[in-house]
Amino acid sequence: MRMNQGVEWGLHVCLALSWAAPGVSVTADQLAEYFDLPKPYLHKQIRSLARGGLVASATGPRGGYALARPVETITLMDVVTAIQGPDPAFLCTEIRHRGVSGRLSDERSSDARCLIEQGMLRAEMAWRRELAAQTLGQIRDQLDDVSPALARHSRRWFGSP
Amino acid sequence: MRMNQGVEWGLHVCLALSWAAPGVSVTADQLAEYFDLPKPYLHKQIRSLARGGLVASATGPRGGYALARPVETITLMDVVTAIQGPDPAFLCTEIRHRGVSGRLSDERSSDARCLIEQGMLRAEMAWRRELAAQTLGQIRDQLDDVSPALARHSRRWFGSP
DNA sequence: GCAGAGGTACTCGGATACGCGCTGTCCGAGTAAATTGGG
DNA sequence: CCCAATTTACTCGGACAGCGCGTATCCGAGTACCTCTGC
Prior knowledge:
Two copies of one chain form a homodimer.
Chain A (H helix, E strand, L loop, with lengths): L4 H13 L10 H8 L3 H13 L3 E4 L5 E4 L8 H9 L14 H6 L2 H5 L3 H19 L2 H11 L1 H10 L4
Antiparallel strand pairs in A: 1-2
Helix pairs in contact in A: 1-3, 1-4, 2-3, 8-9
The first copy, chain A, binds a DNA duplex through α3.
């Protein structure tokens, strides 16, 4: 189980967009140059962010992308969901109801949820909860503490006044 | 991000093997029939469990697989690791050090760990912790409470005395 | 009847094709800005 | 000088190939059991 490459890119893109001044759009090509990533493919990943409602797009000259919501309200969970969809990682196919096992189980156990599914979902919920508890705003603040120069230089590079 | 099908199979297989009497081996074909799954592919997944040290294999007539450890000591994490490897789901490729972003960052921020990686790893650790906290023994006990008949019939079907 | 050698059948193990989804790329639709001509 | 229509150039958006990992399968290596023969 490997997570999509796009998740890492999407997270860094949102963080970078938080450095652009309000009202200023950043093009996909600018972001690709900023991170030295293949332009068309990064562009595709950003479109996933747009479809998920995390970034707003503007076409034409002076167009590009900008955060659609304050960075303090964007969680890691939001980005992960936007890039790789809302489907749970563990999918229970109810094999306990198939074959001999299915014929052996009585009605009580059939009605109850699969206990293995419950256990796996419990772990996945802990993962999602932890992702939802961390906002990109917190990460940006920490980064400002560690390296104020990076944020300052990035703001200038993205054309903020 | 979808988890391997084999994880679900492996979990159910270990649970089923816990119903076999000590010293009795269950063949891969028996397990495939028990769950109505394709024999060769299920066999391959069980081999992953064997490589991970969860089940012991015996060749020849009356051979097959048996749990290598008490079911109370086998956690969901063990099975997940055995099937899909120990690699973390989120892999940080340090794109912050590439392109313009890499040139803008100073030494302090370069030495520090990527904060996005830390956040993602934090969530993944919560997931792993929850998986490691649940043993198949607990699940089997719950299942015995919900449906004692299933456990009883399965023990008979697997040839336990 | 018993012991041992040989044969047999059964099981696991690694090596081998196939398919779907992530990866990577392109060109067209739409839009805002710049330009130019007229009033 | 100001305004408006037109042109232009720029950006996003969806549609299109390529590749790697998971899916699915097969046959060979090894072993325990069974059988048969000789004592």
